[in-house]
Specification:
Layout (H helix, E strand, L loop, with lengths): L2 E6 L7 H11 L7 E6 L5 H6 L5 E6 L13 E2 L1 H6 L4 E5 L2 E5 L2 H16 L6 E5 L3 H12 L4 E6 L8 H8 L3 E5 L3 H10 L2 E4 L7 H4 L9 E4 L8 H8 L3 E4 H17 L5 H5 L5
Parallel strand pairs: 1-2, 1-3, 4-6, 7-8, 7-10, 8-9, 10-11, 11-12
Antiparallel strand pairs: 3-5, 5-6
Helix pairs in contact: 1-10, 4-5, 4-10, 5-6
């Protein structure tokens, strides 16, 4: 039987099965294919990939495998290569090809939310964090026309750093350490868009000190919990808030296209998201 699945660790709370099954139902193949949830770590990733059978249509890849998988597949899409992160793998004739649909998910989520609010074109942005999702955010901001991006993080070195991704993408970033509190608050206050890629609760202290403008936009990529401290503060001040689940929805929609060649119903996928 044909199947697809999401791999990573921990994986039990992933919404990918709900989204992909709803997408498959919307194009009429839901009864023929199965979608699996598979616990895979960095250590077990090589053996898992080597065990894939011919029924595999594709893999949704989540942490901690998004970067390590790049050296284990046969072909890497140029965008995924530049960002340094693969979240989708599509097998074809024994060849494993990696893609990054997170960039698409971020672009669609922010663009649609700002359009609904009638926001002017953005010019500046701040990214909180410097890992794989931050690198995808940087690429997405370029697509949205951002000309100035500040990245705020505890550190900027190490493999998969956003600094390396910025070089590959051909863009410049301003680097600010979290320890430079005054600069951190100034950059966030002046940005048109804020994207937080921080784990849950890491940004709580910053959130409590913010007074966002109504023309500012926040995307917090966390989707559980949905109402993070940052989200609550931006909502309370009437700013444009983009929930992490919207990014997840749109990146999954593109994944379905890559895996099946079919254009699923986004609204049908949205309806299965727990409220």
């Amino acid at each position: 039987m044909s199947w697809a699945g999401v791999i990573g660790s921990p994986i039990e709370h992933s919404l990918s099965p709900l989204l992909h099954r709803a997408a498959w139902d919307s194009v009429g193949v839901g009864s023929d294919w199965t979608y699996r949830t598979i616990e895979v770590t960095k250590e077990t990733l090589p053996s898992f990939l080597s065990s894939l059978d011919s029924g595999c249509l594709g893999l949704s890849v989540t942490m901690p495998c998004k970067q390590d998988i790049m050296s284990l597949i046969d072909v890497c899409d140029p965008l995924a290569q530049a960002v340094g992160s693969v979240n989708t793998v599509v097998p074809s004739a024994g060849v494993l090809t990696g893609f990054n649909t997170d960039v698409h998910g971020i672009v669609m989520a922010i663009d649609q939310a700002r359009a609904r609010r009638g926001c002017d074109a953005p010019h500046s942005a701040v990214i909180l964090g410097s890992g794989a999702t931050a690198a995808s955010s940087l690429a997405a901001l370029g697509t949205l026309g951002i000309t100035r991006t500040t990245v705020i993080a505890r550190r900027f070195g190490g493999p998969g750093s956003i600094v390396v991704a910025a070089t590959r993408l051909g863009v410049e970033i301003d680097q600010v350490l979290f320890s430079d509190h005054e600069r951190v608050m100034h950059e966030i206050a002046s940005a048109d868009i804020l994207i937080s890629t921080l784990p849950a609760h890491i940004g709580d202290d910053i959130a409590k000190q913010l007074s966002p403008r109504t023309d500012q936009c926040l995307l917090d990529v966390i989707y559980s919990p949905r109402d993070t401290q940052l989200v609550q503060v931006y909502e309370a001040n009437g700013a444009c808030v983009v929930y992490g689940v919207e990014m997840l929805l749109h990146q999954a929609h593109l994944q379905v296209q890559l895996m099946t060649g079919k254009n699923a119903d986004v609204e049908a996928m949205r309806q299965v998201i727990p409220q």
